[in-house]
Design goal:
Distance between the termini: 23 Å
CATH superfamily of one domain: Jelly Rolls
Number of helices: 0
Structural class: mainly beta
Shape: globular
CATH class of one domain: Mainly Beta
CATH topology of one domain: Jelly Rolls
Number of strands: 8
Length: 119
């Protein structure tokens, strides 16, 4: 049975798995090694938690697919909302994105983040 309480540590024994959230054409450098280290996936698919890492990219997102709370571990992320307002986030900052939000997601420096999503 999986643990109900656990510490999410990016250097822990979890195994990095390839992630394919970002379309290849959206990467802005030759690096495309996007990965996820999953720590929790609810049986019903309603909640997921882990560590995600991605090289620089820029993606137009017409409707964010989940509610997500993230804490930036390293790197830099600029989110530009539907009104054209941009905000940049870096290490130690916590970001919430509501499901359905329209935005541009621009990773300017390799991003590593803790995430928790819900549907």
């Amino acid at each position: 049975m999986p643990a109900n309480t656990f510490k999410i540590i990016p250097q822990s024994a979890g195994e990095k798995q390839p992630s394919k959230l970002i379309p290849k054409a959206c990467f802005t450098t030759d690096e495309t090694d996007e990965t996820t280290m999953r720590f929790h996936d609810a049986k019903d698919g309603s909640v997921a938690a882990g560590v995600w890492e991605c090289p620089p990219c820029k993606v137009e997102i017409p409707a964010y697919p989940v509610n997500e709370m993230m804490t930036i571990i390293s790197g830099a992320l600029t989110i530009t909302n539907a009104d054209g307002v941009a905000e940049t986030f870096g290490p130690g900052e916590v970001v919430f994105v509501a499901k359905g939000s329209k935005m541009t997601w621009h990773i300017t420096k390799r991003l590593r983040k803790y995430y928790m999503t819900s549907h």
